[in-house]
Amino acid sequence: MRLSRAFWLPAWTFILVLLLWQAVAFLKLYPRHLFPPPFEVATGALELLQSGELWSHIAVSLVRFAGGYGAAVIVAVPLGLVLGRCSFLWMALDPLVQVLRPISPIAWFPLISLWFGIGNLPAVVIIFLAAFYPILLATVAAVKNVDPLYLKIAANFGASRLNVLWKIIVPAAFPQITVGLHLAVGTAWVFLVAGEMLGVRSGLGYLIIDSRNNLRIDQVLVGIVLIGLLGLAIDRLVSTGERWVKRQWSGA
Questions:
Q1: Which residues lie below 8 Å from residue 84, measured CB to CB, with a gap of 6+?
Q2: Mean pLDDT along residues 105-121
Q3: Verdict on whether the full-model pTM lies above 0.70
Q4: Where residue 125 sits, what CATH number does that domain have?
């Protein structure tokens, strides 16, 4: 019953959105070529599928996202664990991080394109920058919020630093680290699309810009809808991974 409700409630939400979309298109508040109804957008998606172009754009975007986001996790989580444990080092670096963090990754694009050229790498770097700071700050905060009692007990039992880090700090901090991981997923996905609109000739961001230039608004909407659906799928995948890790640590 619960699984059925978890499926049908979101399904009805999407159905209502489609009906509202169709109603706005039917009322002709905007010209049909500027606001196509859902059926025309589905036709545009079918056209892209039949040509194989859509699968290519999706695959390229996912590979770029995986590379940039994965690199951010690999760098930011260990660095956050170290900085969270070393207050002196974090005190020295915190102002620099707070200066760099608010700078949009897109603001770096002119320099990134000069340093890394044009192609996949600049887009991956933009994704990395978008994901890095949320993960780093969440990890540092999570480590600092670990109950000191856990550390005292571990010290009394003579646990090594490595054991304390892996068996005490990481499991205790992980729920808060996941907040940063979740936030970084959405942020990185947004900037993936922005990066693809600026400097590459493939991916969903490029599909949107190219379709707009060709006055194919139906395919622009195909790209927009796919970005949202893939973002939802990635978010659910991250949630599933988090639950798996928690089960491994809890032994449940």
A1: 90, 139, 140, 141, 142, 143, 144, 169, 173
A2: 82
A3: yes
A4: 1.10.3720.10
